[in-house]
Queue: 3 jobs
Job 1
Amino acid sequence: MTPWFDPSLVFVGGAWRPCASGETLPVIDPSTGVEIARIARGSATDIDAAVTAAEAALSGDWGAMPAFQRGRILARLGQMVLDHIDQLAQMEATDVGKPLTQARNDVIALARYCEFYAGAADKLMGETIPFQPGFTVYTLREPHGVTGHIVPWNYPMQIIGRSVGAALATGNACVLKPAEEACLTALAFADLAHKAGLPPGALNVVPGLGAEAGAALTAHPGIRHISFTGSVATGRRVQAATAENVVPVTLELGGKSPQLVFADADLNAALPFLVNAGIQNAGQTCSASSRILVERSVYAEVCDRMAEAYRALTTGPAMADLRTGPLISARQKGIVERYLAMADPAHILARGQLAPDLPPGGHYIAPALIAGPAPDHPLAQEEIFGPVQIILPFEDEEDAIRIANGTLYGLVASVWSRHGGRQMRLAKRLRAGQVFINNYGAAGGVELPFGGTGLSGHGREKGFEALYAFTTLKTVAAHHG
Ligand code: TXE
């Protein structure tokens, strides 16, 4: 997989150029541990140049462009993404270590975000407000200006789609800082956007380390909004930095999302979702369902059936396209192994299988299903971010809610039950930004507002809701007598 662009450059003002320091960072293929490319080590100087380019775009062609025209460019971009599906999927699979089919799905999701926000660009409207006689009052939705986007390594294309897509549709100019572990598709996206007709400076991409390029972006006084997806620890730093400049921030910080399985559930329908929501992308998913809560009377049966499904899971290189690939890095593998070491070996119900002859430098972990640590155990409380699921029993609806809501997170939850009243009650009482009934994740749902409460963060991305987040509201009160 050789990118069609030079990945060691930054993309600023519609052109590729070396970063100011001239230094580069390695791109490691997590499936093999081998370096496959170099990316720029962007710094505060590059971020500053990107913000300047974005400001120039706003006072030039991009800022003057009518909304429908922005939509057309996004629509073209969506088509170009689909036209490059093979290259982009291979690039993402190699860079992130995700199985090729999952990487292809991410390409399709990126195209869907472009399509959705293309269609929405000229449909965001203000209101007229009934006021006193002699006045006409209305609201205008205006772009923030230059928006900063800090993206993690687990779903680069999807997260870029949901945040940059909405920001461009509403007329902001973006500076994107992808994760140092997986930058390639961010750079590819910028190249395609340029070719789709996006004016220079409307989208700038500066790869680099979080503590350098990332911190410089969040602290830059020219940035008017920050969208961040990543860890709680970094999210806190990002929010503190944006507080200095008093700019709004959207934080999506992962979770410990539960699926609640009641005795009356259709277990055949539930089972694939119970397992897949935990192991997709090797569990490195913000909305991963890492806790399965099961009504006591069917607990043993669900444990057995999930264990059987786990034993059939295979893990191997991204290009082998098995159920799970490697973890992103040796560091992430170490984190997951430390959590696994906390488990009582007798509680590990099942492990998946590692494919034979794995490349020795890859960061592989066989998925693990762990039964019954106490709900307050770190395994049942903390985000592990690996292919590990915890399965716990509950006694009744009240107990289920207590355990489900008993972490500091609140991103996603699901309820498996045929009982309509229970579905509605739980949908109201579960602490989460999204609740699914008899499904999980709704296949990604680009149309569906997404975000969390508690340590999972605040603000909403995806769907139409993101358009409100990426605009600021102006009220105009005209007195005409
Ligand atoms: O995250 P970071 P890491 C969780 C997951 C994982 C843990 C650590 O539990 O084990 O976080 O992952 C940039 N100012 N999630 O270390 O540090 C960084 O360059 C500005 C959940 O990768 O949060 C990258 O682009 N930016 C999550 C992005 O922040 C900074 C997805 C994420 O990195 C910065 C990823 C700084 N000071 C990890 N420091 C999810 N919600 O899905 C780093 N960055």
Job 2
Amino acid sequence: MHNMKHRILFLLLSYLLLSNQLIHSIPGIIPQPKEVTSGKGVFELTKFITIIYQDERQAENAEYLYDELKKEYGFSLLINQKNRPQNGSIFLKENPTIPEEGYKLTVDKKQIICEASTPTGMFYAIQSFLQSIISEDKSYFILCMNVEDAPRYPWRGMMLDVARHFHNKETVMNLLDAMARLKMNRFHWHLTDEDGWRIEIKKYPKLTQEGAVGNWSDRMAYPKYFSQQDVKEIVEYARLRHITVIPEIDMPGHASAASRAYPEISAGGEGRWAGFTFHPAKESTYRFLEDVLTEVAELFPGPYIHIGGDEVHFGNQVWFTDPQIQKFIKDKQLGDESGLEHYFLRRVSDIVKNLGKTTVGWDEMIASGIPSHQAVIMWWRHDKREQLEKALSQGFNVVMTPRIPCYLDFVQDNTQKIGRRWGTDFNSLFTVYKFPKPVESIISAYPDQIMGMQASVWTERMAGTKRLYYMIFPRLVAISENAWSADKVKNYDSFMKRLKNFLLYLDRKGINYFNPFDVNSTPEPWGPTKKDVIAEG
Ligand code: TNX
């Protein structure tokens, strides 16, 4: 206790001396809010505090807050629905004047008030509150302050590839927890690729019986996939954390796992690219995909379905020689193989539209002729800025996830041996943090079309959970600040100070990370096989 008072005094004193900097470093809210003003004194958090919520629709948030305090600090607080706060309460208050995802957080010595106009805004007030708890000698307190906040972008995401190496339900849920703490709201789930088909489709059981066998490091690995029940649990877990899940079924390329299960809808081929694409000239392919997407649309209540569309040219050699495909190109007057690729994407995007969903696709999709209001483009080829410009000038809404600096399978430190590089470029925490500065001059002309950004976690070289977390953290934290915080409140020194607080959260959850404060303290966890020594550009 004595120690704690000492510490409080020290904090308050330093605040008086150094006010501006301390607003940034204490409390450790990350991403940085729009405005933080420090008050005087502290609110002491004890087990006698009550959580009070005003409106029935905040009941789930109140329970979430209860659960988090219980899990992290062992508290079991009371929860009440009432119209006004009382001394020693955390009050979830309706305030219709606050923007949709925004919130206010007011901490004084007697109470904590979280205000928002929506359950999502309230959820974010709760995150800032949770991040502000300081624990010291088994006492818990929060510095008095006022926070006013709202996000820069509506899409603050992370993509996880579970096809190259499977990562299970518990891992996904841990990641959703961390995303929620960072006010991130889009989980893009890359469910199918060459190495595995990871989602159960009832109408086509072989997709998982055969298509889920193997992974990037071991072609014969035991089949791993998410059952429809798993998917429902994850979607619900995400919903309670105000995260929309976007499923991706990659096509017409990256389809090798589906091809192994159902060779009759594959374009075939030999060697490394065998079965890389669906057969684009068979009606049965489109029927198959419609059936698959119908089940997918039912499982995922969110408005989006991602249909990939990337890198088709890698493995479509068969398209140039197969008589049925060549005849199809002629009959439909598609011109050539890339015309056929665009036809394929238009057709599947129409299926998605008929299912009541919006298409999302990688930036190759810009050229497909899909109307701009019907699709969201993910810009990924950082070396092709013209793709970003094209998407915007054609009227598409865009999510930015350029390889440099948003792909977390690139190394984060020059000493690392496993992971991608692009020439001499890689994705250090600092490089990630600078985004989207390098493209600001392009995007500033289209403020309404930039939906936001995401980290993309490709898992060719991430077999184990420890390694997966190590590559994700702390770079995901930088992405969350890039997506949430206005440029004028961003500051790398301040970020690094607040990051320490988030690393404590990861410690409490047992989530591994690369420690940028002590590079040698965190040895690079093992990759899967010998193959994953330094990757290609
Ligand atoms: C490119 S991004 C891919 C992925 C790889 C990734 C590795 C994209 C649309 N395609 O298939 O996993 O690079 O960094």
Job 3
Amino acid sequence: MTSDESHGQSTEAGESTATGVRQSTQVAIIGAGPAGLLLGHILGQAGIDYRILEARDKDYVLGRIRAGVLEQDSVDLLGKYGLDADLKTNGLTHHGIYLQHEGERHHIDFAELTGRTVTVYGQQALVHHLVAEHERLGSQLIFEATDVQPTKIESAQIDGERASVAYTAPNGERITLDCDYIIGADGYHGVCRRTFPEGTLEVAERVYDFAWLGILADVAPSTDDLIYALHRDGFAMHSMRSTTVSRLYLQVSPDDDIANWSDERIWEALQTRLGTEGWTLTEGPITEKSILPMRSFVVSTLNYGRLYLVGDAGHIVPPTGAKGLNSAIADVALLAEALQAHYAGDDTGLEQYSDKALDRQWKVQHFSQWMTDMLHVHPADGSAEQSAFDFQRQLGQIRYVTSSHAAQVSLAEQYAGLPFVDAR
Ligand code: RFL
Ligand code: PHB
């Protein structure tokens, strides 16, 4: 089946029962974030039926801003499935990043160090494109599907039994959707992870004592590549969305209130933390601002019975290494391949999915935490002496990274992206 053909055509006109309507598909995907939307496209192109159930309305899903950097393998995967038309026009290829400390700025050239690049392309633009393509194909993408409840997930152990997902459709009808597999692509706050039977899933977690204040501004970026800066006042970053829109971040306290941050105060802090001699940060109207908490979080398994987790439903990283969206895409690549192999008669990929995805994920967790630790001021939870020690240690680390070829290759290799894992 090609991407031009309609797909995701699960049976719509199901049988009515006393408790509602019973319908059927092969794969029920819960969540229309980037992971769920992308998985649907790949399955559809392989001729596998699916239905995507999203709790929020379409405007809300299209309105979320979030991530901005795609690894090269993410870009290549979107290209492989013909989902990169907008990305090719509006994505900005970047050859590296700047690391900055105490006003000193160093370029780390990924292309030169590893032959790989990254692409700055907003998650919002990606989601817009994936939704538009689903609509063009007439996919089964249901917004405002409420009270979504996965059931019979353990049915993999019972011969011939299928799983099902119950949900309330936007017209108020309660639907039971029978399926072979349920995919939890429902993010950190989703329902799927909570459906694992007690004792089958453990959580490893770290919460940080700092957060990011993120802004979007209608002003051309003042830099060619992203700038990550450690300053005594805290971390700051300069990213972008296009040649006319900038995205910038500041480290703040997680219990700070956005009301405390006037536009003027934000620009002042950005000028201080990002400033270097001979360089100007151009200011412009701020169109969006919010404070984003951060955490590291990984579940012990991404699979129980007929239920599989992908993306933020199974793991979260702090955004410093730009890995969340890319990890979601890496999971989808692996699981989509495993599901295709299943329908061709081979279950090895499904059996190995969780171990393989988590093996890659823990490497990504290490990198994200390393970048975060190196670039943020650690609040004096213990003592001012500890904080002062940490700051000097971090400066030592940045000076090492910016002067060592080996350290730069390692950073570049991880930032541009560890290879996606093969399901075979
Ligand atoms: P999402 O995007 O959270 O989507 C989950 C979807 O599931 C829906 N849902 C439900 N639907 C039905 N029933 C339920 N019970 C449901 N519960 C939830 C939700 O409404 C939602 O639509 O997860 P997904 O698809 O796994 O995608 C993950 C990414 O969104 C996330 O990892 C990234 O945004 C993280 N991230 C970054 N990642 C990168 O790779 N590069 C970056 O540069 C980057 N920058 C960032 C980021 C995240 C940030 N924030 C906001 C934490 C920058 C920031 C500021
Ligand atoms: C972004 O552009 O939103 C962005 C870029 C790099 C990161 C995090 C966020 O590490």
